[in-house]
Amino acid sequence: MALSCADMMKEAESQYTALELETRAGKPVKLRNLLMLPEAGLASARVILAEFADGDQESDLDSLETIVPRLRDLLLLVADAPAALKKEIEDWPMGMYVRVVDAWQEETQVGEAPGSDN
Fold this sequence. Notes:
By secondary structure, the protein is mainly α. The protein has helices at 5-15, 39-54, 60-78, 82-89, 94-108, and strands at 19-22, 28-31.
């Protein structure tokens, strides 16, 4: 019996869940799990996430000036409907970005592998 790629994709989507948002305009947007991004998207995510790590050496003021664009880029990258999300986030304060990113991380966090000692 052959494995069904369609069935396996559904299983992957249910295992590596997305955070579902509804914009103020009523548009649904899913913030996908990093593991469900295509190869190019994953490479872009790696660059954005590396910028956060590099920010550890910046002064606090520089960090505040660059964090919102980084968070915006990350959210637009993982969004399944980036145009709808772009319109939604144009007036978000930093606190809203932090709340959404925290919720996205919590929803998409992959648990430990079965039998892992860690």
